[in-house]
Design brief:
Largest sheet: none
Low-confidence stretches: 1-10, 12-17, 19-38, 296-314
Number of strands: 0
Mean pLDDT: 75
Strand content: under 5%
Structural class: mainly alpha
Length: 330
């Protein structure tokens, strides 16, 4: 059911964060590959294609400098620390504890709402989308659930258990890359003496326990509940964060408007953008007005004859990932 998938996806995205930051050494090669002519992927290879595209996108975003000879020499000690911090099976354990704990709590809330299909599930099941489904009472949905799926609640519980097993296997595949990236990061951030001291601590009973629990602690309900208590303060700061409040530019001059440019600069800017000068003047004025109003230019502000300069590398990399995801029906 969609409720289960949604709940699991929320937790899965949270667990994916550490692995998303792992080292990517093939950035340049990946970027060049994404600029090649797009090819239609075989449906049987669509999943692998989506994974490759995501790896290329991550490689284009996160560019890691090659390790120096001194850092390379520290890799054995750094690798030992990484192995302690990301022990075999840790991601599977994290996923299971999260599914049993945080996500399980959300799932329990869903079950507590009754053994009735949601309006969305009923709409998907019957093909009826509209008021006839949305207007159903809980009692009516429960009666329809009994008609359509008498073992609905048991099915949800079985699907949750199956999804937990699947997520445990899937996220286990992230561990090797995370350990490798973590070892390289440790090698760049700590000296040999510091790594020796870290590994000496991890060799003690308390250190071994800390290393094995350090990653999984971030799924602990104690932490999740405490972070949740900070949400009101976070939401209160959101307007300032996205509204651009405050003088962040200091004494820096404002960006130049069209009339601030010299005639030669106006001609060159219009030439680079592929528009005539009156059009550029008008568009810049519209953009300035929209910015002052806190909005953005209208969708049709640029006509079909106007041309903008795209960020080729980012755009093509993103397109490659989107096309691959479309092939797997995402």
């Amino acid at each position: 059911m969609k409720n289960i998938a949604l709940v699991a996806a929320m937790g899965a995205l949270a667990l994916a964060q550490p692995a998303m930051a792992q080292d990517e050494s093939a950035t340049e090669e990946a970027t060049e590959d994404t600029q090649a002519e797009p090819q239609q992927a075989d449906p049987d290879e669509a999943g692998q294609s989506a994974g490759v595209a995501l790896a290329e996108l991550m490689g284009a975003i996160f560019s890691a400098e090659p390790l120096t000879a001194e850092q390379e020499a520290r890799l054995p000690e750094a690798g030992a620390a990484a192995n302690a911090l990301v022990p075999e099976g840790i991601y599977g354990r994290m996923m299971r504890e999260m599914m049993d704990g945080t996500v399980g709590g959300l799932f329990g809330m869903i079950l507590e709402q009754g053994d009735a299909m949601s309006s969305l599930d009923l709409a998907d099941y019957t093909g009826l989308y509209g008021e006839e489904v949305d207007a159903l009472t809980e009692e009516q949905r429960r009666e329809l659930t009994t008609i359509f799926d008498p073992v609905y609640q048991e099915r949800m519980e079985a699907e949750m258990a199956a999804m937990t097993d699947m997520m445990e296997r899937v996220f286990g595949s992230l561990e090797p890359g995370l350990r490798e990236g973590l070892s390289r990061a440790l090698a760049t951030r700590f000296s040999t003496d510091e790594l020796d001291a870290i590994n000496a601590f991890f060799a003690t009973p308390a250190g071994a326990k800390y290393a094995g629990e350090s990653l999984i602690m971030f799924t602990d309900p104690q932490i999740m509940a405490s972070v949740g208590q900070a949400m009101p303060a976070l939401m209160q700061e959101m307007p300032a964060l996205f509204g651009g409040e405050g003088d962040t530019a200091g004494d820096l001059p404002a960006p130049r408007r069209y009339d601030d440019l010299t005639p030669s600069e106006q001609r060159r800017a219009a030439e680079l953008l592929g528009v005539d000068q009156p059009t550029l003047r008008a568009r810049m004025a519209e953009a300035e007005e929209a910015g002052a109003a806190g909005g953005a230019p209208a969708d049709d502000a640029w006509s079909d004859d106007d041309q903008a300069i795209p960020d080729v590398e980012t755009e093509e990399t993103s397109d490659a990932f989107e096309e691959a995801m479309e092939e797997v029906g995402a």
